[in-house]
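#struct-pred
JK: can someone run the complex with N-carbamoyl-L-aspartate? inputs below
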Amino acid sequence: MTLAGRSLISLEDFSTEEIISILDLAEEMAEALGWEDAEQRQAAKPLDCILATLFFEPSTRTRVSFEAAMLRLGGGVITMADPKASSAAKGESLADAARIVGGYCDIIAIRHPQPGTAQIAVDNASVPVINAGDGHNQHPTQALTDLFCLRRHKDSLTGLKVGLCGDLKYGRTVHSLAPVLARLGCELVFISPDMLAMPPEIVESIGQTSDQTPQQTDDLAAAITDLDMLYMTRIQKERFADAAEYEHCKGIYVVDKATLRGAPEEMLIMHPLPRVGEISPEIDDDPRAVYFQQAAGGVPVRMALIALLLGLMPEAAAPKSGLAEPA
Ligand code: NCD
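RT: done, structure tokens with the ligand placed:
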């Protein structure tokens, strides 16, 4: 099935082959951007397509990398990044806003604090919609960016042992990443206090697609000793109903030089960012710390996704090797 004309709410919407084809195209996009060799940079031809970014929640990386991606593809961008300056402040429904903006553009990237809002946009807009984060629910393009970074550093994703650490309850990035990692054949370890554990429905969906029951622990020091990748997350302060609960959890995990003494030499450290204390800047120069490279990958990944959803690319016939299929 083609990706052209489709929307992306959750990576569950895409087959493993489709996900691999996005990552493969992102590699080509990275090359066109001159990542490894600036002299190889290819200028984009002008593209008569417009991306609308509708952001009802704060964002730095996601919105800016979506916009950079569209500009690098040669297209144009219109943006609504301050809900107070839009008709949402007058009480306009999201359904109406999506219907109207869909008439002004060719593709929409939307972020909203309420879970389920990306689906409302899909149901009302006449163009493809990409979920750029809907509350605590899903953040599929971050998961694609995470996979892209992980695949660039490891030969195959199959068989990797990945620890997801921090706020697994409210963190939407891990809700998108954990199921796709399991589908690709990674072994998962969930590291969090009980009150921030991975929601049961995500654990259940992992069991359905991969036959694995991820290990759950609150002990980072014990779990870190045999991981191939540690994915740190921010405690999502803005999603706590009770400020006292946040105060109780904040600062619970901090990765610093001392933590890394117990970690394997080849273990990658990733984070969707922003960090607010979970990763000490003292490890930024450690070769295992790849979170800034991870963030940079957001541009080629979103270029690939936009190009495929807009039907601009002939789609790959078969996935490239290097990202082995689960058995
Ligand atoms: C994440 C998000 O918005 O969910 N940030 C991002 O998009 N890279 C993670 C976070 O805010 O903690």
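RT: quick notes.
Strands lie at 50-55, 76-80, 107-112, 129-134, 161-165, 187-191, 215-217, 229-232, 268-270.
The longest helix spans residues 16-32.
JK: thanks, will look after standup
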